[in-house]
Design a protein that fits this description.
It is built from six helices and eight strands. It is α/β, with parallel strands linked by helices and 214 residues long. The strands form two sheets. A five-stranded mixed beta sheet has the order 1-6-7-2-5. It is globular.
Length: 214
Amino acid sequence: MQTNNGASIVNGAARRPNRRGMPFADGLKEPMSKEIYQTLIRQYPRARLSTADQPLPEADFEAQKHKHFSRRALGGAIGIIHNARGQIVLAKRSGMHAGWSLPGGTVEEGEDFSAAFRREITEEIGVSLDLVDLIEVERKKFISPQGETFDFLLTVFTARMREEELPGPTDDAIAEGLEIALFYPAAIPSEMILGDRQKLTHHLKALGALDPSS
């Protein structure tokens, strides 16, 4: 990870799930995971800090856990991306966590969160980004039906796509069964996965792009 002045920071990832149901701050047993969180909030002092408990069906929990720990992932990087007309880019996923979502994906071991976000957008959508900024750091706890848990660090960025329209589907989008679409704020789907709609509406209301009472 790099700070604003370009200094390198060594990243690490939790090697095992936390089964104890602790609050996130106590459950971050790996020192480098704590360091990543603290570095992000120092680097982006205006970012909103949030926490979320996320129950999952057993199959999704096991798939998410395997993906996270087998890849030694640092967390996730998703984003609210708009074009010049104010439309928002969303991705409809199939398989694990099926449904409309904010685009983005996994932050790999040794990868900067902002760089991971840009990479995921290139792979999933095929657009170029300007004005990338981190607006939220969420401390998420995934919970299985049996009560097993593990902690996950999710970052939410905002960005503007340089292109006015979406290109054709990328190879990665086709392989993953993704549908990519643009939505005006008033027409965003009523159902989105993993709390993404709440993140999006919170941001749009703060910008005045959505009725605060909606």
